Amino acid sequence: MDPLLAVSRLPKLAERAMRASVLLALEHGRITPRGVINEALVRFERDVQSEAPDGVRPALLFSERDRIVRELRSFIDGRLAARLAALRHRDILSTASRSAPFDAIVRNRFGHAYGIVLRRLPPDGTRLDVIRRIATATQRYSKVPLRGTLLYDLASGSARLIREAPAAPARRSVA
User: Fold this and answer.
1) DSSP character for 109?
2) Which of 36, 83, 92, 134 sits at 20 to 30 Å (Cα–Cα) from 171?
3) Which pTM was predicted?
4) Are 44 and 65 in contact (CB under 8 A)?
5) Which domain holds residue 127?
């Protein structure tokens, strides 16, 4: 694989592998550091093999593997992973493709549904566009009424709650 193409493609493959690994652990109710990280690395290696059968420079591959381990370790040590691990199986409404465009739909202890999104947010101005798209998806989601979406940035290790904005009241024209 061309090194320039690999630099742009490997982070996307890594993000997909990390999200799939976390969601698999959530579905099975076992969010353990070793299990999540190993599953993500295996998925990443398999995706790289299918994308680039002729290989990738080892330095690029190992730097992305180190980044996967670092970001997943930060996620697992954080509060969001602890809260997700504490969910009962009946409170996980859907995951993966069944919850699209979110990674998962969960119910909190008060019975309110929330979307979960795990992404590497870009460090530049396009970050706001991504957050805006997630907020719009939260408002338009029709399968279950969502109270909001919890967005976890894999790159920085920060989480933010995007609440559903109430519909604006209709304006009356004064003529």
Assistant:
1) T
2) 134
3) 0.85
4) yes
5) 89-163
